[in-house]
Amino acid sequence: MTKNKxxxxxxxxxxxxxxxxxxxxxxxxxxxxxxxxxxASLGNAQFPRVGVTILSETAEYMGIFDDTQLxxxxxxxDVVAKKDIGINYTVTDEAIGSISSGxxxxxxxxxxxxxxxxNIKHDGTSYGTVTEVTTxxxxxxxxxxxxxxxxxxxxxxxxxxxxxxVSSHDGEAITSTYVVKLEGKKAAQHLARQxxxxxxNNWRADLQPRGLFYPELLGNNPIPIDEELxxxxxxxxxxxxxFNVGEGI
Length: 249
Fold this sequence. Notes:
The chain is α+β, with helices and mostly antiparallel strands. The chain has helices at about 10-20, 165-170, 185-205; strands at about 30-35, 50-65, 65-80, 85-100, 115-120, 125, 130-135, 150-155, 160, 175-180, 215-225, 230-245. The protein folds into two domains: about 10-85 and about 185-245, Alpha-Beta Plaits (2-Layer Sandwich); about 85-180, no CATH class. The strands form three sheets. A five-stranded mixed sheet has the order 1-2-3-12-11. A four-stranded antiparallel sheet has the order 4-10-5-6. A hairpin with a 4-residue loop joins strand 11 and strand 12. The longest helix is centred in the C-terminal third of the chain and has 24 residues, at about 185-205.
């Protein structure tokens, strides 16, 4: 059974520092800390910021004659970002899906609506022309769209392929590299999604050996904390289990 030599908020902070990519490449050093971020003393270049706080802790004995206790902790993760501080975030080789010749299945959608698209590939081969349109209604009819051309909608991130490419590339994997501009609420929301994705996918390998297990996402809420300064906060509440919390400290 894991003995916990450090507090659980520090365990999670260390995990996030290793697994979470900083969307602000202009700075160096840590940007994820225990406790709520000290936003009042931070310059513009220090946003976004992440803080981890222990909200509550309960415990129960594992058995009648067992001194080992199973603790349940509520952890709050706050992401604070600032309006009008634009950060260009590059998504590399996102797996968008597979192209299909089925009815109305030639359109796939990005996870995040791109500001600019570097490439769109089918099984690793780039399409020759990528064209931005304003809305889905602006898409060219697939039968009239030239082969080796893909359109993407700036409104939704949906993709539109030519009928010729849908037929010849049927079943091939579609990937793309693109750039998203993140600021304010959008940056906070994006980082919160990435935080939970890393926890959900890696807790067994990275958190459980350090004592935290069975994470549950109880809430993920946007909270404008200072409209005058343009600060935006995404607050997440996570429940985790841990044995004999803080033992050995």
